[in-house]
Amino acid sequence: MLFRSEIVSEASLADYDVVVVIDCGEAARMGKLVEQLSDHPCVVNIDHPGTNDGFGQANIVLPKVSSSCEILFTLFGQWGVTITPDIATNLYVGLYTDTNMFKNMNSTPEAYRACGDLVAAGADFHTAAKRIYIDTSAARLRLLARVLSTLRLDGDGRIAGMICTGEDLNELGLTPDALETFVEYPRAIVGVEAAYLLRELKEKGQVKGSLRSSNNADVAAVAQQFTGGGHTRAAGFRATGTLAEVRERLVTALLTALEG
Asked: What is the sign of the dihedral through the CA atoms of 71, 20, 38 and 7?
């Protein structure tokens, strides 16, 4: 089934001989499963950002590959897995979104070829594009208006960013998923080299940040300063402080990165 967002099942990791973790840069992001993960004797870690900390007993981490879904597609081919239309669609979505509709620098020839093969295998690319990048709601557009009103430029227009409060989401009855792709708005401004979106988390004094760059600025290195990580041009982090405090620290770090 395409676009499921619920937990399919919960079980003890000890019940399984092998645990495969996909697209997870560090074990801590496994939440309440992290202790079970550390105790398990066979964890396979599949990811593509270079900041992955290699927490598995087996680590398939390929920074030059566009996405974890491209890695899976290659593995499935080697294993002789039959790619059904549902499998093809879900792998296509991972490739399509991680390359930001093939706009990011990780849009390699291999990524294009993989997507072509997935479409040939029955991937519903039209529904994927429509559901992810076109379909929206009135509430989400109202949220966008609020977030855009917080736009701020620094560093002579080289840095642009926006913030979203917990109140913004609550008043409009939305979840954080509604913010997906919003960080692309400040990145799209001509002259901007690094962009960010910050939002309040439910935990008091916690802020989540999404970073993007338009040139060779390494936002993954900046994210690591806030115990985050990701790709050179797309990264994220979680920090302690108010939105205003984190914003000031982040802008300072981005300025230093751009000047370096």
From this structure: positive
Report the predicted TM-score, pTM, of the whole model to 2 decimal places.
Answer: 0.80
CA atoms of 48 and 51, how far apart (whole Å): 9
Which amino acid would we find at residue 83?
A: I
CB of 196 closer than 8 Å to CB of 208: no
Domains 13-131 and 138-259 share a fold: no
Return phi, psi of residue 58, to 5°.
-125, 130
Name the residue ranges covered by the structural domains of the chain. 13-131, 138-259
Adjacent-strand bridge partners of 163: 198
Class of 13-131 in CATH = alpha beta
pLDDT tens-digit map of 81-124: 999 999 999 999 999 988 888 877 788 999 999 999 999 999 99
Residue (of 114, 48, 129) closest to 77 by Cα position: 114
* CATH class held by domain 138-259: alpha beta
Q: Which of 162, 174, 164, 257 is nearest to 219 (CA)?
A: 257
Strand ordering across the sheet containing 58-61: 19-22, 43-47, 58-61
SS3 204: coil
